[in-house]
Design goal:
There is one protein chain. The protein starts with 7 loop residues before the first strand and ends with a strand. It has about 300 residues and is an alpha+beta fold. It is globular. The protein has helices at about 25-35, 50-60, 70-80, 100-105, 110-120, 155-165, 175-185, 245-250, and strands at about 10-15, 40-45, 65-70, 90-95, 125-135, 145-150, 150-155, 190-195, 200-205, 205-210, 235-240, 265-270, 270-275, 280-285, 285-290, 295-305. It has a 6-stranded antiparallel sheet, with helices on one face. It has a 6-stranded antiparallel sheet with strand order 12-11-10-7-14-15. It folds into 2 domains: about 10-130, Rossmann fold (3-Layer(aba) Sandwich); about 135-300, Sandwich (Tumour Suppressor Smad4), CATH 2.60.200. Helix content is about 25%, strand content about 35%.
């Protein structure tokens, strides 16, 4: 298998993928790309921080692509390395949720198809999509900053995400569902101040979620009308409701039909500030980010992707 235009490609493989069902995915990606004639640098490190350092150094050499092998956490690593640069991000999904791959139309449940998709995408111009910058203030007054591309959670959904991240099994959306059921006994609203492009809303809410992409948690379409390159963020606000009412509406999130429920409010904005009276931690792309308050700003077409 050969290609007419060899590329210089860096492949970063999730350290957690060295065992289990996904352990062969990274080597298969590297082997296939080399068989196509590409010059491939394979990054395998014992832990995430070491991989981040290696990938950062590799991106400084301006490769033709950075490919991440793993789930949405690995996508987040890639986003924070290449957003705002000319280096495109490729994704071979092998994680739990794989929501970014879903949103980009990359095969998320067939490794061979995903690798073929990547090979074909390397021959096409990269697609430009939006990234989102998050800012917060640390206890010592320093400003923290990070990017995400998929979705952010700042309520009950973030609490569920935290529990799900501690679970090893099962894989996919079922892990999130089990974590949700485990946390349901403590379901309660929080008092929020959410500022959308200068308009401040004060409300009690169970969930405050922001989507650049459609889904999180392995296919739960929290912001079903989100568009990755429209320069806007979709915001979902869920008002207080009982546990029984929550369980009635929850299944609708898989089809994205929950947005018509009276307790759900959908908005759009370019700049968002989220504050709460409680000590809540936000998650973005499935990764723990920082305690509230946080400020978000969309960066139109700042991220080039192989999709």
């Amino acid at each position: 298998m050969t290609t007419t235009k060899p590329r210089r490609v860096v492949v970063a493989i999730n350290p957690s993928a060295s065992f289990g069902a996904s352990r062969d995915v990274g080597p298969a990606v590297v082997q296939t790309l080399r068989a196509m004639g590409h010059e491939v640098t394979s990054l395998t490190e014992p832990d995430f921080d070491s991989l981040l350092d290696s990938a950062r150094a590799a991106v400084r050499t301006r490769p033709d692509a950075l490919v991440v092998v793993g789930g949405d956490g690995m996508v987040n690593l890639g986003v924070n390395l290449v957003a705002g640069t000319r280096v495109p991000l490729g994704i071979v999904p092998s994680g739990t949720g794989n929501d970014m791959a879903r949103g980009l139309g990359i095969p998320h449940d067939d490794t061979e198809a995903a690798i073929r998709f990547l090979g074909e995408a390397l021959e096409r111009p990269a697609r430009e999509i939006d990234a989102v910058r998050i800012r917060w203030t640390e206890d010592d007054g320093t400003v923290g900053e990070r990017r995400f591309a998929c979705a952010l959670s700042a309520g009950f959904d973030a609490i569920v995400n935290e529990r799900a991240n501690l679970m090893r099994h099962p894989k996919g959306a079922s892990r999130y569902i089990l974590a949700l059921l485990a946390e349901l006994a403590r379901l309660k609203p929080f008092r929020y101040r959410v500022t959308l492009d200068g308009e401040t809303l004060e409300l009690d809410a169970l969930m405050v979620s922001v989507g650049n992409n459609v889904s999180l948690g392995g296919g739960m379409k929290i912001t079903p009308d989100a568009v990755l390159d429209d320069g806007l963020l979709d915001v979902m606000l869920v008002k207080p409701l009982s546990r029984i009412a929550f369980l009635r509406i929850f299944p609708r999130v898989f089809q994205g039909t929950h947005t018509t429920a009276p307790v759900v409010t959908m908005r759009r904005a370019r700049r968002i500030r989220i504050e709460a009276d409680a000590a809540l931690v936000v998650y973005a792309d499935g990764e723990r980010i920082a305690p509230l308050p946080v400020e978000l700003e969309v960066e139109p077409r700042a991220l080039r992707v192989l999709a």
